[in-house]
UniProtKB/TrEMBL annotation:
This is MAPEG family protein. The chain crosses the membrane at residues 6-25, 68-95, 115-137. It is found in: Membrane. The lineage of its organism: Bacteria, Pseudomonadati, Pseudomonadota, Gammaproteobacteria, Lysobacterales. One of its GO terms (cellular component) is membrane.
Amino acid sequence: MNRAIFLPAAAMVALTFAVWLRMYSSRVGEMRRKRIHPQAVATSAQMAARLEDTRAADNFRNLFELPVLFYLALVVAALTAQVDTVVLALAWLFVALRIVHSAIHCSYNKVMHRFQAYLAGSVALWALWGVLAAGLLRG
């Protein structure tokens, strides 16, 4: 089994951890500054009503949407011996574009810039699945 396919997964986990740290830091910081008791933000509705900066939390949730299909694609590639230059390139492209997406989302958050990174990453992911599906059909 070509273990190189799992390096992009490790990079995505590292990105998810970095966004989690950013979310934790910004959320706790805002709660301390505004003296918000943790119980006052026990639900997502209460959180949205009381906290102003939800960028990192919103991005953290995004990292459990399309990336789920990414992680599965890597497992499929490994289990079906389809790890090659094209698959690895598409996997790393997806990771790079998710990093760009997260950087935009957690900082200046211009929607059209974020959307362009999201769309490009999505295309890379769909292309990855296309390559894998073609390989599966060829047997």
